[in-house]
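Co-fold these.
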Amino acid sequence: MQTTQKSIKERIIHYVENHSGEILQNDPPEMAQLRRKAFQLFKTQGIPGRNLESWKNTDIQSILDQEYHCSPEPESRKINVETFFHCNIPDLDTLMVNTLNGYYIYRHSPLKKHPNGVIIGSLAEAKKQYPQLVDENYGKCAIDTIDGMISLNTALANDGVFVYVPDNVEMKEAIQIVHINHNEERLLTNVRNLIVVGKNSSLTLVHCDDSYTKQAAFINSLTEIIVKQNAVVDHYKLQNLNNNTTLINQVFFSQFADSRVHSVAMTLNGGLIRNYAHTRFHEPGAEANVLGLYLVDKTQNVDNQVYINHTAPNCTSNELFKGLIDDQAKAIFNGHIKVHRNAQKTIAYQNNKNLLLTDKARIVAKPFLEIYADDVKCSHGATVGQLDNDALFYLMSRGISKESARMLLMYAFAAEVINEIKIDVLRNQIDDMVKKRLHGELDICETCVLHCQNREREITFPIDMSKI
Amino acid sequence: MGKENQQEEILQHVTQNEYKYGFVTDVEMEIAPVGLNEDTVRYISAKKNEPEWLLAFRLNAFRKWETMKMPTWAHLDIPPIDYQAISYYAAPKNLPKYSSLEEVDPELLKTFDKLGISLEEQKRLAGVAVDAVFDSVSVKTTFQETLKKHGIIFCSFSDAVQEYPDLVQKYMGSVVPPHDNFFAALNSAVFSDGSFCYIPRGVRCPIELSTYFRINTANTGQFERTLIVADEESYVSYMEGCTAPQRDENQLHAAIVEIIVMKDAEVKYSTVQNWYPGNKEGNGGIYNFVTKRGICKGNNAKLSWTQVETGSAKTWKYPSCILLGDNTIGEFYSVAVTNNYQQADTGSKMIHLGKNTKSTIISKGISAGHSDNSYRGLVKMVKKAANARNYSQCDSLLLGDKCGAHTFPYIKTENQTSMVEHEATTSKISEDQLFYCNQRGISTESAIGLIVNGYAKEVLNKLPMEFAIEAQKLLSISLEGSVG
Amino acid sequence: MLSIKNLTVSIENKQILKGLNLEINKGEVHAIMGPNGTGKSTLANIIAGKNIYTIEEGTIDYMGKNLMEMEVDERANEGIFLSFQYPVEIPGVSMVNFMRTAINEQRQYHGKDPLSAAEFLQKMEEKKKLVEIHSKLTNRSVNEGFSGGEKKKNEIFQMAMLEPVLAILDETDSGLDIDALRVVANGVNKLRNENNAFIVITHYQRLLDYIIPDFVHVLFEGKIVKSGGKELALELEQKGYEWLNQPSK
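Predicted complex below.
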């Protein structure tokens, strides 16, 4: 404990009090109000500490004791992102939008309305151009004031991505949001995204968090996704950061009647990653599939918090999180399903499976069920273990070496989640990447396979699969 | 089709079913002045004529307790407790040592009769020795002779302190240290009496040992302490049963049970608890905040907890196993029923330290009325616990739409070769099952009793015979027709 | 004994029975046949009192009482027994405990003292012999892990225990091999007498080779479209249900 230095909380409060003009400059009145409230709340909450149950196993206070700067607005937003970033999923046909250190960057215009009515661009700009649209939806999902990271984001975040899909529009092209961190000093970045999908519409989102430099960063990201009646959202989250980066990633889904969400989170690399995924069913008939795969090694830390909130009857949630934990890495899974009194006919499944690959890997799993309605089908399961010995024996009896057999089984373990990626090129890419990881080849790459320099090299198992 | 009306009626019938053990025995009591400070601790210790080391143990615990806060993490709604408004010692006055039942106060015997556990009855029953605890001081111990023959020590805790101080000093607090938690610290400071049991090496205890606890006297907390030591290659089955008379004020109970299981030994600890759960509006009832923990100290030791919980207004209880020796086995079988406004937060902790250790958790929760029933359990496997295994199954049954059923498992694994499996389901009694029973002429009320007993059977089967029958009755009584 | 008049029943706004009439007297065995989905099981469930249906019209009179006003267990205690098409598993509840509860509730209903354990066991042994059931089944939990045949035999055993006045066998023959079918039929034949009646619901004529009905009814699209003697069953077997379309339309 450094007593001479100001705590991160004090530094943030100091920063906000000195920069309130800048921070509030673009806010419509309701948002400004929300921001002030959040700031007051943050003052009492502070950075969450390990005394909170949900932060018990993840210590960010000590990280933030180091010198971090609140990221300043770039001098120019007109940056050609390709000058320093390439998305190396070559055939991924998406509409890419970017933020740099939490601010939206662009080549031509900060906010664009497409012919079909879809609006894509900077949230800060949307506040100016469509204040009503933003006000209606902003801050409506992230109302749970669970801890200081949410209030901090609401108090500080100035920009991020805004996507609005009007009613009855099917977005064929996926939108890819790439958040890049690129800086010379340690940055504390608060980035905020707002996605609204209208009635009977559909949208596919690919959400990537990347770090470009090796410099440490602390990213506090919050995304609100509003899925209106009968809308469909596919959401893919890819996390691939350098090992000095801390990422707090909070995604809130608000689902209305008969909407469907399919969400797959892939944690591939990162120093400390905490995912907080919150799904709330506001109206009957909605469905959510929430899946995740975490492959962690070295001294990485991944903390997945999944909260499914059944506040309306007749909704279905399916949760599957799988983890391969290698080296001295540590994984945390906190699943929480809450079924409210009136949410009868709820179907909720939660499953968490983990493989520990070394003696130093650690896992903490807390799959919670909190149920207040009686006519429900709820179950959960959690396992921690190693590879199935019978399966291993079976493969080896067919002449497969132990090492290959292990690899096959580990791959099969991961494939259950990978197969849930509906975009072919993306799935193939992740598939390759997982195979590489299982081969222990991931360390070779400077960054990771998504930016891999050796794309030409085919990844194959040295086994003829047809013989099994 | 009038079904709802019928269920309404049944519900009314059940909620009017008053607790049948609610009565107060009129025995003269010696009660400590209300409040808790060092003087209270000294008073209790002096009353019990305790050795210096035990007073020091109590004072140490008391000082720790003063710095601690009541835990708030459980899924319980506990109003603030004024620890200074409780009397910490109550003993029937002029307590003589009885050599036969005839000498016992007839009022006291009547109480046991009403509870259906009269000592005479018990004496006649097949080989059950009873150490009955009336409020705080042990009144009568039977079958001492049989036990003595085998070298088994089974006596009140106070007697053990006087007669076997070395054994008590050696093991007391070794599993549940005084500062373990708020309630354990409180108990360690002010514990009144309890049971002590020592099974010597190689001895298989020929009878089921049994203690019936009972709380009397308004506003006395009861702070029992049980210490069981099973020496190498020994075996004992121990039963604990509890009833308390009806009171309007909430009564606090913070007991400690410590069990030490040596190499190749086995201990089975069974509890059937039907303490007064409060009335149908949720007034009154026992607060049961208990620390139960055992250690499988030597290799191949086995400890098995079985509990049937139907009582207490609030339950905070996690019987645990520390699996220290290699190849040790820990088991936890639980049925917890909550009705009306009862709240229970109960489960188990399995701490795997040794190699090839195994644990099983089977928990069956049944919630009715406006109650909340939570399973909370920890399974921990440390780095050294190679090939450790755990299997947990936690099922919840909801009767009616005003209650809650929750499952809070914690799994921590640091070992690559260990395996943890947790499964849980939540459901209600199926309409099809009810219809099937009704079609055979079985009323809805009886059908629920049948189905719930069937649901809990896996656990009830683990109880000793005498307990299993009582437990089955209790389950039906606690739940009669509470479907809504 | 049983008189059904103009029974019209729907579930989730879909009419299943459309003005069904049926008269059953003591000592009679009625077979109800018909293709799938014509309301055979619905009829059985309605008589037993399953409350998922809406009765739109019609009356059911059972021994002078309005059946609609009686609860499921009350009907059972008045002698109505349903052999389920899909008997429900009740884990952990032993058959012995289940049957003893049922018998004693029935006795209580009729103002009789409960059977002692010895009397009950004796009765159970008798009935087991009657329906050729192995002792093992009764030691297990109700229907839990029973094969299809075992479940159906168990239904017949329960029928023997409860000695109903009106027994309804809902597709008891479906999925049975020939031996099990014989056991089931023998059970019914031994139990049938001048004071009780049976409704045998079946899809195939096969069962009726063993249980000879007094009357055969064809249920089609929610109505009884044809009634006759046992020879009607044979006719149906030869011609199939298709020919019903022609005379009725």
